[in-house]
Amino acid sequence: xxxxxxxxxxxxxxxxxxxxxxxxxxxxxxxxxxxxxxxxxxxxxxxxxxxxxxxxxxxxxxxxxxxxxxxxxxxxxxxxxxxxxxxxxxxxxxxxxxxxxxxxxxxxxxxxxxxxxxxxxxxxxxxxxxxxxxxxxxxxxxxxxxx
Length: 147
What we know:
- The protein is 14% helix and 41% strand.
- It contains 1 helix and 6 strands; from the N terminus they run ββαββββ.
- β4 (101-112) and β5 form a beta hairpin.
């Protein structure tokens, strides 16, 4: 069984914006990360359900931690950053609720000029709650001057 680094060493996010808690599996293009929905979750609504838009950020962070681990395995730097640039084809099938432990599955589909096109799915147990394609702009080293 592979032991993965702490997610806070892989991406710059910190609570309450750090939504993924650990890496579960990393393959060449596919990754799995875990994201618990605590009762004090930043995006939990009054009715106890997670705001649906949160799934896009879960996918982006899930991809980010897995990609950072891939880079470490190749002896590449993880210095730099990124942000969720846009999304396509978002579908919400069922809401996540306080107390759920979500699994985020990501797959890198393509890359163009520093933008990664990632297909992601969010599950609770075996039930798919959401899916989307996200476009994540990433850079190594210092941020681009336009940021």
